[in-house]
């Protein structure tokens, strides 16, 4: 097997691994940031509200359809009189929690990172296609073809959320639609 084929396979594999690393790191960072912003608070999906450590409920206050966020707020009078206020919020309008409507892959940041990872995988496929065009030995074609198949599977997996949720067309708002509560 030629050195060019080995380098092409290695480079394509490295690009694909970097793509999945970016995907994992971006999702991990997103989950960690959400946990940090809501530390000590408990979300109750059945009634769509948060409960603070002292038992105060934060109800949906605003639905931002453009940014795809729901803002939950506690009553200012309760927060301002709370003994934990200094550790919880500096706002005199009550504690606010912002929750995205979309899960990570469908969020704007998630879609941005997904497109970057897909571009890396497409670049890996381009490297493999050039190597296939230049090398015709059956052993090299087999090695390159195998990596092409694996890279195509990776691209298909990464593209699944982009296909199922095109930008600007949410599937549904579900129970978080504050406007429908009346």
What does this structure look like?
With 182 residues, this protein is of the alpha+beta class. The protein folds into two domains: 3-30 and 107-164; 38-102 and 174-181, no CATH class. The chain is 54% helix and 13% strand. The chain is built from five helices and five strands; from the N terminus they run αββββααβαα. It has helices at residues 3-37, 76-81, 85-88, 108-134, 138-164; strands at 42-44, 49-51, 57-64, 69-73, 96-100. The protein has a five-stranded antiparallel sheet with strand order 1-2-3-4-5, with no helix packed on it. A hairpin with a 5-residue loop joins β2 and β3. α1 runs antiparallel to α4. The longest helix is centred in the N-terminal third of the chain and has 35 residues, at 3-37. The chain is rod-shaped, with a radius of gyration of 24 Å. 20% of the residues are buried. The model is unreliable at 169-182 (pLDDT under 50).
> In which order are the strands of the major sheet placed?
1-2-3-4-5
Mean pLDDT: 85
Low-confidence stretches at least 5 residues in length (pLDDT < 50)?
Answer: 169-182
SSE string: HEEEEHHEHH
Summarize the amount of helix as a percent range: 40-55%
Number of domains: 2
Strand content: 5-15%
Number of helices: 5
Largest sheet: 5 strands, antiparallel
Structural class: alpha+beta
CA(first)-CA(last) distance: 69 Å
Based on Cα principal axes, name the global outline: rod-shaped
List key phrases describing it.
182 residues; alpha+beta; 2 domains; 5-stranded antiparallel β-sheet; rod-shaped
